[in-house]
Amino acid sequence: MLIHDTGNDIDYPYTSYLYWSLIDMSFNNGNGEVVLKNQIIINDTLPLGQIVACKHANGRDWWIVAQEININGYYVMLLSPAGIILNSHQYIGTRDFSSGQAAFSPDGSTYASYDT
After folding, report:
1. What are the C-alpha distances in Å from 44 to residues 3, 13, 55?
2. 113 pLDDT exceeds 90?
3. What pTM value is reported for the model?
4. Which stretches of the chain are assigned E, i.e. beta strand?
5. Which of 5, 36, 73, 77 makes the best surface tag, with the fewest CB within 10 Å?
6. What is the pLDDT of residue 21?
């Protein structure tokens, strides 16, 4: 599974959708082929560079966090063998602008973001 966005041009540093697409690696001599494309996870304005993932404590699943643009909203999703689900939509902290970067610490215990 590939998680991706629409990627708008440089004048608008946001994306309108967060998608998932399914790639079957048994096609094309092991190079893979997209078998399901652009399935919408979130339809909202999300800043570019601030969609991040962190491995779950169970060692199998992944947490994915995406911020909303210009406000303190965060989408928290869980990716597991069953698929991707929206776990929560939280409003925490403060935000001043829309562009920047986000990351988890290597051990996954801390999430940080930087806005320009």
Report:
1. 15, 13, 24
2. no
3. 0.83
4. 2-5, 14-24, 33-47, 51-55, 62-67, 73-80, 83-91, 100-104, 111-115
5. 36
6. 95
Contact 15, 5 (CB under 8 A): yes
27 residue type, one letter: F
DSSP state at residue 68:
P
Dig out the tokens for 44 from the structure. 């909202």
pLDDT digits (tens, 9 = 90+) for 33-70: 999 999 999 999 888 778 899 999 999 999 999 988 87
Instruction: Please check whether residue 77 is in contact with residue 89, taking contact to mean a CB–CB distance below 8 angstroms.
Output: no
Handedness of CA 38, 42, 47, 50 (dihedral sign): negative
18 vs 67: CA distance, rounded Å: 11
- Please check whether residue 50 is in contact with residue 112, taking contact to mean a CB–CB distance below 8 angstroms: no
